Amino acid sequence: MSDTKSELTPFFAPRSVAIVGASTTFAKWGAIIFHNILLGGFTGGIYPVNRNQPDIFGLPAYKNLSDIPGPVDLVMIIVPTEKVIEVLNEAGDKGTKAIILITAGYSETGDNGRRLEEETIRVARQRGMRVLGPNCMGIVSMPANLTAWMPSYIPGPGRVSIVSQSGNMGYSIAKSIVKRGLGVARVVSSGNEADLTSVDFINYFRDDPDTDMILSYIEGVEDGSGLLASLRRVSRKKPVIVIKAGSTGAGARASASHTGAMVGSDAVFSAALQSSGVIRAHDIEEMTDCAAALSSQPIPRGNRVGVITLGGGWGVMAADALARQGLDVIPLKSETIDRLNAILPPYWSRSNPVDLVAGLKDGDFKKPLRTLLESDYIDSLMLLGIGYGEMRGRYILDSPYSGNYDMQQIGRLFIRADETTAEAIIGLMDVYKKPIIPVVDQAVMEGESRFKEILREKDILLFASPLRGAVALSALVRYGQYVNRTATS
Asked: Would you call 70 helix, strand, or coil by DSSP?
């Protein structure tokens, strides 16, 4: 079993899938998973296996795997533990090489379950099969339209792949990044990792042409050094963001009862992740923000940040947040101040953050942005207090008094100002190849506007607070430092 890459291909691009334990009873996972496969639009062969049903959702059901005509690339097993080995032997007779073992009741339950798990994997290996699980939630492969998992959710397609030791966390991460404006390539719920492990899938994603970024939820690993070596190798080519759970005593105990995972020293593991170029996130929100930055922003040359804000409070919060993340809110040089004096109102802050005191005229945003981006001592920008124009404009246009005092014209100007800002961000980032982190109010984040649409069309994502923007920018900087360091070593 040396060529893991070719062994994993049937999991992500099978020509046919059999679901042993498929059901019409929606209180059972066999019905829910089978239904999800149908809804996902998988175009290969779909074979339900159920001794008591003649057909399921209009497809003929088979009593055994041996009754299925032709080969079966992938077999999903959703039957009680006492029947699993029998099904594995049937799959071996069929020539199947890929098994997804949904069934729970193995090492996560204690010593007896561990012994049963070891025997199950021994049989699978004797028959030349690789096993995902047990105690897993399934798999998603959007390029193959394969949604063979438990959640009642079909992710939006994209370029992010996820491997998670927790099925629920894998689902939550997938849903979070889709909501954020990214999309999914693959999702793997690795469960107890009795055979295939997170390391195997991370290595596979490194060379997967459909994957640009890898997200992983890890509770514990048997081979920590192997995981770190793989992460180091993979992160040189693609960004990797990891949530490592079980960092406290309480979390470690919960992890052991969840997937049977072994949890080592959190401080040592965290330091090793950092030295491997991996971004460590502490929750899904942080992971999603870091993914948003890494997917949509250029890599900065260093950690020196310029800040432009339409309100002083935003700027103070941003300066604190950036500094706490180890980023340098660099003082402006005199020549930069002179250039800004020529284009900004006389009451601007004359420091970094550049506080415009809400005094910018329509169309002028591009000038201060360009001035800072042209400064060779500034590596990236954070832009705050933007995106309100459409909210203000719609409020004015929808007013019962909007026929008075040029209110219609002013309302449209506010909306157009937002569009101009979005266009400036896109154009300047393309020219100067420096990150511009747009931070907006939560109301702007949640609402729909042409401002957001323009940025989204170019895959530029917004951040809901200075802190979240700072954390994401810090991840971008640290990943850039790692890539540059390894490129010259």
From this structure: coil
Domains and CATH numbers, the chain: 1-136 (3.40.50.720), 155-296 (3.40.50.261), 298-487 (3.40.50.261)
Per-residue confidence (pLDDT) for residue 263, from 0 to 100? 45
Q: Collapsing DSSP states into helix, strand and coil, what is residue 154?
A: coil
Q: Please tell me the least confidently modeled range out of 130-139, 238-247, 435-444, 469-478.
A: 238-247
| Tokens describing residue 164 | 């998670």
- The pLDDT-based confidence of 451 (bands split at 50, 70, 90) is very high
Q: Tens of pLDDT along 270-313?
A: 788 888 889 999 999 999 999 999 999 999 999 999 999 988 89
Residue 256: closest CA among 217, 215, 221: 221
The whole-angstrom separation of Cα 333 and Cα 350 is 10
Q: Which of 163, 169, 381, 160 is nearest to 292 (CA)?
A: 160
CA angle 258, 261, 263 (to 5 degrees): 115
Phi, psi for 379 (deg, rounded to 5): -95, -25
The kind and range of the H/E element at 394 are helix 389-397
Cα–Cα distance for residue pair 332/375, rounded to 1 Å: 9
pLDDT of residue 59: 97
> What are the CA-CA distances from residue 178 to residues 171, 184, 292, 375, 398 (Å)?
11, 7, 11, 35, 32
What pLDDT shows up at residue 250? Answer: 46
Does residue 60 sit in helix, strand or coil? strand
CA-nearest of 157, 161, 91 to 126 is: 91
- Contact (Cβ atoms closer than 8 angstroms) between residue 77 and residue 109: no
Two tokens at 202? 């991370």
Decide: helix, strand or coil at residue 390.
Answer: helix
Judging by beta carbons within 10 Å of its beta carbon (0-12, 13-18, 19+), is residue 481 exposed, middle or buried?
middle
Query: In angstroms, rounded to a whole number, what is the distance separating the alpha carbons of residues 231 and 339?
Result: 45
Cα 385 to chain centroid, rounded: 26
Q: What is the pLDDT of residue 249?
A: 52
**Please, what is the end-to-end C-alpha distance for the chain in angstroms?**
33
- Measured CA to CA, the distance from residue 246 to residue 249 in angstroms comes to 7
Closest-CA residue to 231 (of 241, 220, 245, 244): 241
Global pTM value: 0.90
In the chain, % of residues over pLDDT 70 = 93
pLDDT per position as a tens digit, 161-208: 999 999 999 999 999 999 999 999 999 999 999 999 999 999 999 999
List the one residue out of 95, 182, 103 whose CA is nearest residue 142. 182
At residue 2, does pLDDT exceed 60? no
